[in-house]
Write a structure and sequence with these properties.
MetI-like fold; 14 helices; globular
């Protein structure tokens, strides 16, 4: 009998570091760069009150004489210098981008969470119960897919805003926007979860759960749901970028975030009014921030899709 001592068990952190998922991340430069960019932008948005040189939405801190100051140049009247210049109201563009990203990210995350909850729930019900439940849910999904998501979001936004009392419309605009985008994006979650549920419910562990008397709700929640989360995470990551773009599109069209709480889309809409008059920076820098945020999240979602796909390992 050998006296060689057994190797010490690895810690959870060490096991996570040595996992296939972590190895794939360490060997994917695009994923590393994308994660870094996303992390920096999210931290900059969350810490905007600490990072931003000015509060762009506090009228007491604004000076109209600083309006249209080019990036990095001193204002001819006040002598103030701004890193990314100022807009027509004298607001620091760098500060408006930080505060605007907070609105865009909040709407994006909240809308994706809403779409994920609705889509996963309906997908589980359709895949597991089948019959008329599946027919109704999938036909509704098919009908919604015949319309562009942005038109569905605009329709829902218009209806929800129409039934909101006028005195509360500006206060509820962000929540109405989240509702509109979330209700327009649940279909992808539902279709993928339904397909995965159809595969999982025929496996032996589900049959065993039925034999021991587990309820359908418990089987869906405790057994099937954990096994269909991988594609859901991939869709959620990609949908986050699409939700941010949808919010920016709606705000650009003037039916999104209110002027009192402008997002990146609102800032781009303001900037395009001065694009041909020489004040290019008012449009360029918010558009660049939106591009960097959406592109980085999309690239991260593409890597996540490959990393969670066992066929590509």
């Amino acid at each position: 009998m050998s006296d060689t001592p057994a190797p010490a068990p690895q810690s959870r952190l060490r096991r996570a570091w040595n996992s296939d998922f972590a190895w794939s991340f360490r060997h994917a430069p695009v994923a590393i760069i994308s994660s870094f960019v996303v992390l920096v932008l999210i931290l900059a948005a969350v810490l905007a009150p600490l990072i931003a040189p000015h509060d762009p939405f506090n009228p007491a801190t604004l000076n109209l004489m600083n309006g249209f100051t080019p990036p990095g140049q001193a204002n001819a009247f006040t002598g103030d210098t701004f890193l990314l210049g100022t807009d027509d109201q004298g607001r620091d563009v760098f500060s408006t981008i930080l505060y605007g990203m907070r609105i865009s990210l909040f709407v994006g995350f909240a809308a994706v969470m809403l779409a994920m909850v609705i889509g996963v729930t309906l997908g589980l019900l359709a895949g597991y119960l089948g019959g008329w439940v599946e027919s109704i849910i999938m036909r509704v999904a098919d009908v919604q897919l015949t319309f562009p998501a942005i038109l569905v979001a605009m329709l829902i936004f218009g209806i929800a805003k129409g039934i909101t009392p006028p005195e509360y419309r500006d206060q509820m605009a962000i929540w109405v926007l989240i509702l509109a985008i979330g209700l327009s994006d649940w279909v992808q979650f539902a279709r993928v979860v339904r397909g995965a549920t159809l595969v999982e419910k025929s496996k032996e562990y589900v049959q065993a759960a039925r034999l021991i008397g587990r309820s359908p709700f418990a089987i869906m929640l405790r057994h099937i749901l954990p096994n269909v989360l991988n594609p859901v995470l991939v869709i959620a990551t990609i949908s986050l970028a699409l939700a941010i773009i949808a919010e920016a599109t709606l705000s650009f069209l003037g039916v999104g975030a209110p002027p009192t709480k402008p997002s990146l889309g609102t800032l781009i809409r303001i900037g395009q009014e001065f694009m041909f008059s020489g004040e290019w920076w008012i449009l360029f820098f918010p558009a660049l921030a939106l591009l960097a945020l959406a592109l980085s999240i999309n690239l991260l979602g593409d890597w996540l899709r490959d990393a969670l796909n066992p066929r590509l390992r």
